[in-house]
Amino acid sequence: MQPKKHYEEPDLFRSHLEQILNHRHPLYVLAGKIDWGCFEETFGPTYVEDVGRPGIAVRLMVGLHYLKHTFDESDEGVVERFVENPYWQYFCGMEYFQHRLPIDASSLTRFRDRIGESGVELMLRGLLETAKRGGHLKESHMARVNVDTTVQEKAIAFPTDARLYYKMLMTLVRAAEARGIGLRQSHRRVAKKALAQQGRYAHARQMKRAGKMTKKLKTMLGRVYRDLKRKAEGADEELETLFGLAERLLSQQKESKNKLYSVHAPEVECISKGKAHKKYEFGNKVGMVTTSRGNWIVGIQAFHGNPYDGHTLTSCLDQAKKLTGWSPKEAYTDLGYRGHGYQGKTEVHLVDHRKMKKMTRPVRKWFKRRSAIEPVIGHVKAEHRMDRNYLKGVQGDRMNALLCGCGFNMRKLLAVFFLSHFLWRQWLFLMQSIRDGFACRAFGLPTDINKCLFQGRLNRTLCVPIRSASFACHII
Fold first, then answer.
1. Fewer CB near the last or first residue (10 Å), C or N of the chain?
2. pLDDT in tens, 104-143
């Protein structure tokens, strides 16, 4: 049933979190900036009225997902760290310090299934609206955007024929045992031995012997598949899906299209991006839109079927307009978007460094700025859980991409609040030092503030705390 509003009774022996926390901490400030009510109004209808136990508070679930992808935690890790961190508890709406785990980690999975892709997209829009209300994301930032694609790798082992045959064989055997179907021969022991031998032969570069073991595993898989299909009368939907995967695996060749690369994640695709260190990546393609000024992620979505980069441009720009309410005027892409066929109002520029010498300096500046999206992709992969996607299915791929965008934008918001507090303290210290005359003598400036301002030499002094705060975004 729907979550009930929980009000804790006043406790004379416990202090409110508001009384013991630093009110200038970035998480404390951000907790008061986000509009949590819109999530409760939107996600409320997904619960059933007066059936079952009351659901968990929506703010707690949304806050845990924000924290998970901001600080690169798993479902289990974010729940465990929640008990240790009072700022996390306040951010998720707690009044008093909690000493127990708030939920089981599996509740996060069920919550994602409940809200779906549209709900996660609303979470990304909520952070962008927070940035807009604070003046950190403006319409002028959306005048020029950068668009690029990357690969979101799935949490699978590198696919080999022998391992795929063995995994499919074991999956069919377990399905038969679960349904009480007796197989003529399960090949459990001999298949495991054949897989080990194939690996040893391949490691020793004895490819003919390794090929024989692979062929043996394929033969055993075919025997189990045909035996189970004969005996499974009126097979259920799950078993029919396994039969389809087995047929697809047994029939695929080296030059085949739409290959099967994982038994538990059949939606995985093989994508080649031309990288020297990693020729092939197994997952799905992700399109990303960032602002040229500020590097906010204003659009991110997963694509399946390995589409051409140019064919994803329309969808990416439409999502950016949907999330921010502003339509980009100019979009900068690399040469991989040639022949995109975009027909919208946004002017698309293909950045070709060979032609930039003939451009004026202001135009060349924005063309060079297109490469700013590359470090954003690197941060999203290294720090916000896009390097390896653990969520299940096609919907899991789409939700993980959106949540990674949430984590990156929330980290930017935290850095904004941290820097504002840090620079304010530096400013007060500097003004006090100038008033006392110490900083002026240290920088060779006149001790008279009015004379210093008149000569325009105070700007060099003000640059000192700004340079010293360049590391601030890494402290959070």
1. N
2. 999 999 999 999 999 999 999 999 999 999 999 999 999 9
